[in-house]
Amino acid sequence: MGRLAGKTVLVTGAASGIGAACALRFAREGACIGGIDLAKPPAETWAEVVKAAPAADFWTLDVRDEPAIAQAVEAASRRFSSIDGLVNAAGVSGGGAVGGLEEEEWDRVLDINLKGTFLVSKHVVNRMVEQAAGSIVNLASVEGLEGFEFQAAYNASKGGVVLLTRNMAIDYGAKGVRVNCLCPGLIETPMTDILKSEPLVPIRDKFIEMHMLGRPGQPEEVAAAALFLISDDASFVTGHSLVVDGGMTSGRRLMAPGSAPPAG
Ligand SMILES: NC(=O)c1ccc[n+]([C@@H]2O[C@H](COP(=O)([O-])OP(=O)(O)OC[C@H]3O[C@@H](n4cnc5c(N)ncnc54)[C@H](O)[C@@H]3O)[C@@H](O)[C@H]2O)c1
């Protein structure tokens, strides 16, 4: 029997990357899936989810649009008997250094990454409270834990997600709802594909070097961590920020990867 048999999980950002990997993994673990995204998922990707899940539905909406979220959560509650899990994976990159950052860009990144997480959680958490059970997983980032050059808006949004997670864990723990976040390092998804284009390749190489495992992660590796947090295996875990970063935030290296220590 799958680890999510009998459960329903809503996944935002389900059309691509980490959200799509979560939807498929959870479906294979026996969950009913409610996908949410601004974009429609590629037909073949969603067909795999539909094939694996006991039931699946998809709502196309913007996570900044509260009435649309309220409608979708209402529809999901009618379609499935409960909403046991939520993964907030919808997000965008963007930003820059503060001095050159346009207000519109700041608002776009903060509104999608932070306010979108708040809005979807708001409409789902009240259902979970009624059920006295539920698990929410927010996609933060290593960039919500540490600063990164030219990423002021993105990092502020992800730092906000880390604290929103902790606050929700405090507010809803006694009501049976667990809230955790994931802090991935560099994961190979459409969001980070831009780093494969010149002149960004040297930055990508340097970024990869910061990961002690010496490689970027795959969306399926993040989905595996999300599965743990969503499932009852994490029944005593709440308010936690789980890094899935190939060791990136474990510390600093002084020598080139794999090199021998100097003599003496
Ligand atoms: N890829 C990485 O290296 C990485 C690292 C750390 C954290 N993350 C976070 O993980 C999450 C998923 O990222 P990904 O790499 O899978 O990106 P992705 O671009 O592959 O997928 C993001 C999805 O979010 C959707 N989306 C964007 N704006 C939306 C909106 N306003 N309303 C609804 N849906 C919207 C997009 O349509 C897309 O399907 C994001 O929150 C991202 O910040 C990614």
Give Rg in angstroms.
Answer: 19 Å
Listed once per kind, the bound small molecules are: nicotinamide-adenine-dinucleotide
What's the story with the biggest beta sheet?
Answer: 7 strands, parallel
**How many domains make up the coordinates?**
1
Instruction: Write down how many β-strands occur, each being a DSSP E stretch of 2 or more residues.
Output: 7
CATH class: Alpha Beta
Helix and strand sequence: EHEHEHEHEHEHHE
Strand order of the largest sheet: 3-2-1-4-5-6-7
What separation lies between the terminal Cα atoms?
57 Å
The proportion of strand residues reads: 5-15%
Fraction of residues in H or I helices: 40-55%
Structural class: alpha/beta
Low-pLDDT segments, ≥5 res: none
Query: What fold name goes in the CATH topology slot?
Result: Rossmann fold
Total of DSSP H or I helical runs spanning 4+ residues: 7
Instruction: Identify the CATH architecture.
Output: 3-Layer(aba) Sandwich
Question: What is the typical, i.e. mean, pLDDT?
Answer: 97
3D shape: globular
Relevant CATH superfamily = NAD(P)-binding Rossmann-like Domain
SSE diagram, text form:
Blueprint lengths: L7 E5 L4 H12 L3 E6 L5 H10 L3 E5 L5 H14 L5 E4 L14 H29 L2 E6 L12 H21 L4 E8 L16 H10 L8 H12 L10 E4 L20
Parallel strand pairs: 1-2, 1-4, 2-3, 4-5, 5-6, 6-7
Helix pairs in contact: 1-2, 1-7, 3-4, 4-5
Bound molecules: nicotinamide-adenine-dinucleotide (NAD).
Nicotinamide-adenine-dinucleotide binds next to helix 1 and helix 4.
Question: Would you give an account of this structure?
Answer:
- The N and C termini lie far apart (57 Å).
- This protein has 264 residues and is an alpha/beta fold.
- 44% of the residues are buried.
- Helix 1 runs parallel beside helix 2, helix 1 packs across helix 7 and helix 3 packs parallel to helix 4.
- The protein has a single domain, classed as 3-Layer(aba) Sandwich (Rossmann fold), CATH 3.40.50.
- Helices cover 41% and strands 14% of the residues.
- It is globular.
- The model has no long low-confidence stretch (mean pLDDT 97).
- It is built from seven helices and seven strands, in the order E-H-E-H-E-H-E-H-E-H-E-H-H-E.
- It has a seven-stranded parallel sheet, sandwiched between helices.
- The site of nicotinamide-adenine-dinucleotide has 28 residues, from helix 1 and helix 4.
